[in-house]
Design goal:
Radius of gyration of chain B: 21 Å
Number of strands of chain B: 6
CATH superfamily of the largest domain in chain A: Response regulator
Helix content of chain B: over 70%
Oligomer: heterotrimer
Radius of gyration of chain A: 22 Å
Shape of chain B: globular
Chains: A alpha/beta (372), B mainly alpha (331), C mainly alpha (316)
Strand content of chain A: 15-25%
Number of domains of chain A: 2
Number of helices of chain A: 13
Strand order of the largest sheet of chain B: 1-2
Largest sheet of chain A: 7 strands, mixed
Largest sheet of chain B: 2 strands, antiparallel
CATH architecture of the largest domain in chain A: 3-Layer(aba) Sandwich
Order of helices and strands of chain A: HEHEHEHEEHEHEHEHEHHEHHHEEEE
């Protein structure tokens, strides 16, 4: 019978796929991000970055002589899938640490599962709420959205003295959250936010919206959204003659942004990012070159973050007294390590105490660092 | 009675015992497999609910996930710290089903005059409207952030914490829902629905109120969807609009079509295949969607009636079993 | 305020024209096949990708002026996507004709997933910059600003619609299509090769979609594998709004949807004193759709003869 055959083979494959050969002394670390679907580009870049670091480690002999096996699983940016992935890692006693997930909405229900099985977790998602839920098994090396939204606000109110802002966000957790943070800081700096506008994450045409915004004549437009929306918006802004100062978050810090907007129109746009420029230090240049060599393309939007997360996890495993979850967990919060993002140390909530953030401006078709 | 009868009956009992044992063994697998089983059961419940409207009444609802969302958010609002209301799980289960039913009737009214593809697109719009509304109503639903830290569900004093607890709960519920729908299918109501699906105008000509029939179908299927949503909320203890996209609606429709429309056994088969397939394919993450699409097209082109033929439904199985059990010895 | 209104009107017309062009493809296929071709949005997406491939290939060969290369690439994209449409109909939809309307629709859905994933796997998921085919120069018009590109899109859309209507009403092939839309059995009895009409529709429809895709990519400067799904849904809504099966209906629906979106964004916050923000724009569009269908179940320009003629008796 067709159905029986299909079901039987399905069941066999399912069971078989769970049993992968692992040498007894390998250090197995899990990772999860969206690797398929609309956010594949971002999730995959994180996975690539982490993979790069672990490959580097293995070239030098691994951790304490043991090979590092990195096992990335796709969470499809779906909270339900995230819980299945989390459970899968938890069930596999060989996995002693997980780097995941990328989306805050996916991370939230997963935190519960990791905590319950005592899995040390390094989380890339930037929503501040995550670390305030009281879980003891998780740390976040990346600066959260509070830091990212504050920096440009201080700059434009302080250095540039701009008074009037309009917020645009795409109604996602990230977009809405970070524009809210910008608003608080902008108003604290003496500015006034005259309007907040929502769009959809997949919108391409902002002409009607921009025509509306033009009526308010703002000095600043802060956009909490992803790519390519940031580029499309700015391009259409300039086409309509709206000359306001444009500010965007870390997702926009890519060469694609400048190409899609057009170098002339992008001139002067501000963008935040967690890293100093790729050629500002030998480590970064090395990272960029190695990434190009290994994957055949320049580091994607979150590759550096993935790399840094991997460094933190590896540092914890290195210091662990036993190569299991308890051992790594005991060291996780106390990790202090120099990563690609700079020095990392954690406070009692698991947040990075020194979360650097950098502000860039587009000048002559390239991103140029302003200040820290 | 001859030997062969005893042998046949023993054989039937053995098959039954095997099924029971297999189902009872699931909790002893690693939690991941239990969670997958939970997922399959939830989708079975949802698909059986949608089947009422699509398979029996012949109305294509592409926005079914909206009722699921209503149920889930009902739990999120009535059993969490959001407004500090903490109703017990069983109460919210009924409220969620009722809320789903109301939403189903609300959807049913405007689409009464529509047929086929118009109906499909309007139900799709309705699903999207619900999702966008939930995403934008920040004060009520926390918008895109979602609501976290939902209460732990407990049933008659027993707390439901692990996937295994939910497995048993879902198993019981699946049986109840399937049995209920099966009897409904065989009742006068079911016959009226089937007539509706064949030719709406003849039904009206016979003096049957098609409006009530359609609304009833929507309400009942939506109630089942709402109940499923409440369980989802209690299980994941976190709800956000990301879980209620058009893709999810489509998945439930696919389960019914691939499995076999209007057929409970087919729905079960479809749910198992469509939930397990992506799990098997996770080693090829980038190619997963491509393979998924190819499999979909191939299955539909090769077996357009669904994996399970409409003849092979629950009634057929029951009749077969009864015949095998009761028939005198054959030589 | 008049300037503002006029400016928004220009935007509405530009977007509406693109929606209308895609809706044309949906409506033609539906008219003949009674099939919601979920994969139509992907033909729209394939257009710019195939164009880019061909254009850079031709440029690399040298020998012809870039303008000529561009024109050849556009025509070639139309033909290639059109042929792809014919092939897909032949292998994924035709075998399912006897199985009601649900099975082909889901096959279309599967094809949509396959096409999108295939592009994503080969070219990558990231959005790619699409250089404008024609440079845009703004023209001042009565206080608003309209660009040459917008005018071009509008002109192209109107031309294509007029051309299509003439084709369908005037030529013999067009008569085949109209006959097949009316009734397959009668048409076959009259000696019309229905399958040819179907293949023709699946050549023109996806081809038009590809053209719309190239225009869209040139207008916004970007193309990505997911651009088909979002816009496919919108264009389908536009087709339903205008009355599916009706060519002028598709264009009307397109412009109407464009207007709803643009004016929804522009005036919803103002009219609701800030309660309903711009993010409710899609909800507003869907609500209008439901309202229209409540009063005109076959869409604005759809046939309201009787329910039997608009849809088949038995859906599955």
């Amino acid at each position: 019978m067709n159905r029986t055959r299909i079901l039987l083979s399905a069941a066999t494959l399912l069971f078989a796929s769970g049993a992968m050969p692992v040498l007894a002394d390998d250090v197995v670390l899990g990772g999860s991000a969206p690797m398929s679907g609309a956010q594949a580009e971002f999730g995959q870049s994180q996975i690539d970055g982490a993979q790069l670091y672990f490959d580097q480690l293995n070239e030098k002999g691994g951790i304490k002589g043991n090979k590092v096996v990195f096992r990335p699983l796709d969470d499809r940016a779906d909270p339900r899938q995230g819980t299945l992935v989390a459970q899968q890692f938890c069930d596999d006693s060989a996995v002693i640490g997980v780097i995941g997930h990328m989306n805050s909405g996916v991370t939230m229900p997963a935190l519960d599962i990791y905590s319950e099985c005592g899995m040390p977790q390094v989380v890339p998602a930037t929503n501040p709420e995550l670390m305030r839920m009281g879980f003891k098994t998780v740390v976040r090396p990346v600066a959260n959205d509070f830091v990212q939204g504050a920096l440009p606000a201080k700059y434009v109110t302080g250095k540039l003295g701009l008074k009037n802002a309009v917020l645009v966000h795409d109604k996602t957790v990230f977009g809405q959250g970070i524009s809210g943070v910008f608003k608080d800081n902008f108003e604290a700096g003496g500015g006034k936010v005259s309007g907040t506008y929502g769009t959809n994450p997949e919108d391409v045409d902002f002409s009607a919206l921009i025509a509306s915004i033009k009526l308010e004549n703002p000095d600043v437009v802060y956009m909490g959204a992803g790519m390519p929306q940031l580029a499309l918006f700015l391009k259409q802004m300039r086409e309509q003659g709206l000359k306001a100062q444009f500010i965007g978050p870390d997702i926009g810090f890519t060469v694609d942004f400048i190409t899609q907007v057009g170098a002339a129109s992008a001139e002067g746009a501000l963008m935040t990012f967690q890293l100093p420029p790729y050629d500002s230090s030998p480590e970064l240049k090395d990272f960029s070159d190695r990434h190009q060599a290994r994957f055949g393309r320049a580091p994607g939007p979150y590759a550096s973050l993935g790399f840094a997360n991997a460094q933190v996890m590896a540092a914890a495993v290195e210091k662990a007294e036993s190569l299991d979850r308890e051992g790594v967990l005991a060291q996780l919060h106390g990790v202090t390590v120099d990563t690609l993002l700079g020095p990392v140390a954690f406070d009692e909530n698991g947040e990075n105490t020194t979360a650097p953030m950098y502000l860039y401006v587009v000048k002559d078709g390239k991103f140029e660092l302003i200040k820290q | 009675m001859g030997n062969s009868v005893i042998v046949r009956r023993l054989g039937l009992l053995a098959v039954l015992a095997l099924c029971v044992v297999l189902l009872a063994l699931v909790p002893y697998l690693p939690s991941y497999y239990v969670r997958v089983a939970d997922s399959i059961l939830v989708y079975i419940i949802l698909a059986v609910g949608l089947n009422l409207v699509v398979g029996y009444a012949g109305l294509l609802d592409l926005g079914f996930i909206a009722f699921y969302a209503v149920g889930a958010y009902a739990y999120a609002l009535l059993a969490s710290g959001q407004f500090d209301i903490h109703l017990p799980f069983i109460v919210v289960l009924f409220i969620g089903a009722a809320a789903g039913a109301i939403a189903g009737v609300l959807l049913g009214f405007p689409v009464l005059k529509l047929r086929g593809d118009y109906l499909a697109i309007v139900t799709l719009s309705f699903g999207e409207i619900i999702r966008i509304a939930i995403n934008n109503a920040d004060d009520l639903t926390n918008g895109p952030q979602g609501i976290a830290g939902l209460d732990r569900a407990s049933l008659f004093g027993l707390p439901l914490t692990s996937p295994v607890h939910f497995y048993w709960l879902l198993l019981v519920l699946t049986v109840i829902v399937c049995a209920g729908v099966y009897y409904m299918e065989r009742s006068i109501l079911g016959k009226a629905w089937r007539a509706l699906r064949e030719d709406q105008d003849v039904v009206r000509g016979l003096g049957i109120n098609t409006t009530t029939l359609k609304l009833l179908a929507f309400a009942l299927s939506a109630a089942i969807g709402g109940a499923g949503g409440v369980i989802f909320g209690a299980f994941q203890r976190f709800v956000s609009p990301e879980s209620f996209t058009f893709q999810e609606s489509l998945l439930v429709v696919l389960i019914i079509i691939i499995g076999g429309v209007g057929n409970i056994v087919g729905v079960i088969a479809g749910a198992v295949v469509l939930v397990i397939l992506p799990e098997i394919l996770h080693f090829a993450a980038q190619y997963r969607l491509l393979i998924y699409g190819v499999v979909l097209v191939t299955v539909i082109v090769l077996r357009p009636g669904g994996l399970v033929s409409p003849r092979f439904n629950l009634g057929f199985i029951i009749r077969k079993v009864r015949t095998l059990w009761l028939s005198p010895s054959k030589t | 305020m008049f300037d503002y209104f006029l400016q928004q009107l220009i935007f509405a017309l530009a977007i509406g024209a693109i929606y209308g062009l895609i809706a044309l493809g949906y409506t033609m296929v539906y008219g003949v096949m009674r099939l919601i071709n979920f994969a139509h949005g992907e033909f729209f997406m394939l257009g710019p990708y195939i164009y880019t491939f061909l254009f850079s290939g031709l440029l690399g060969l040298g020998g012809l002026a870039p303008v000529l290369d561009s024109a050849i690439a556009i025509v070639a994209s139309f033909v290639i996507v059109g042929l792809l449409g014919v092939a897909i109909e032949r292998f994924a939809y035709r075998p399912l004709r006897a199985y009601g309307r649900l099975a082909p629709m889901l096959s279309a859905l599967g094809m949509s997933i396959v096409l999108q994933s295939a592009v994503r796997v080969t070219v990558g998921p990231q959005p790619v910059h699409f250089p404008a085919i024609v440079e845009s120069t703004p023209i001042d018009a009565l206080g608003g600003m309209v660009t040459t590109v917008q005018l071009g899109i509008l002109a192209a859309a109107v031309l294509l619609m007029v051309g299509l209507t003439l084709f369908v009403n005037g030529t013999r092939l067009g008569i085949w299509i109209r006959a097949a839309s009316e009734s397959w059995t009668t048409s076959s009895l009259l000696g019309i090769r229905v399958n040819r009409a179907v293949s023709l529709v699946f050549f023109i429809g996806p081809g038009l979609g590809a053209m719309a895709g190239i225009m869209y990519a040139s207008y916004y400067g970007i193309m990505q594998p997911t651009m088909g799904s979002v816009i496919g849904l919108k264009a389908f809504t536009a087709a339903i709004l205008g009355g599916i099966g009706s060519i002028p209906g598709a264009m009307l629906g397109g412009f109407l949807l464009g207007a709803i979106e643009v004016f929804g964004t522009a005036f919803l916050p103002i009219l609701s004193f800030g309660y309903i923000g711009t993010e409710y724009r899609d909800v507003f569009a869907f609500a209008v759709l439901i309202l229209v269908l409540l009063f005109k179940p076959a869409g604005l320009l759809g046939e309201t003869v009787s329910e039997e003629t608009t849809v088949a008796k038995k859906d599955y």
